[in-house]
């Protein structure tokens, strides 16, 4: 086994056997609490990049009682996160009340390659016998490559604002500068859907 995986498993054992570990409440109980909250729940949509971990840069912890639902996909792109967000809407109270924090960041890996380049790389990684099947699988796939982090954030924020499934939610678009670690709210409840994007120089 990969030594890193062995390390993770050992860390898990120590964590689970620690004196502070408590089994979480049952899902139905958590679901009821979330639905009963007047302000709803908080959902964070962020990138899978291990350099930018929401629990860390938002200061979340069980001890502080401020944990949120975290949805992580490549680039923090909404299209990739949508199926999960819809499930949360169906089983929880997402869409009726609560908040979505949509977070993109600078120096994102999805800014280093176009959708076409990603597809080309994937097709080159499979053997000839699998090429046709691979092409069919990738034919309608969009990877959400990023040319401007500010534009991609605005696109995704607008997509959530316009969706009929999240009309009761407060939706914010935040940019994280990986050089400083700081977040900036670029789009919020007061931002008009058709607002003109004024670049702040994020790359």
From TrEMBL:
Gene3D superfamilies: Carbonic anhydrase
Segments forming a coiled coil: none
Keyword Cytoplasm in annotation: no
Named cofactor requirement(s): Zn(2+)
Cofactor details (free text): Binds 1 zinc ion per subunit.
Binding of Zn(2+), residues: 47, 49, 105, 108
Superkingdom per UniProt: Eukaryota
InterPro entries given in the database record: Carbonic_anhydrase, Carbonic_anhydrase_sf
The species this protein was found in: Phialocephala subalpina
Any one Gene Ontology molecular-function term assigned to this protein's record: carbonate dehydratase activity
UniProt keywords, alphabetically: Metal-binding, Zinc
UniProt family annotation: Belongs to the beta-class carbonic anhydrase family.
Official protein name in the record: Carbonic anhydrase
SMART domains linked: Pro_CA
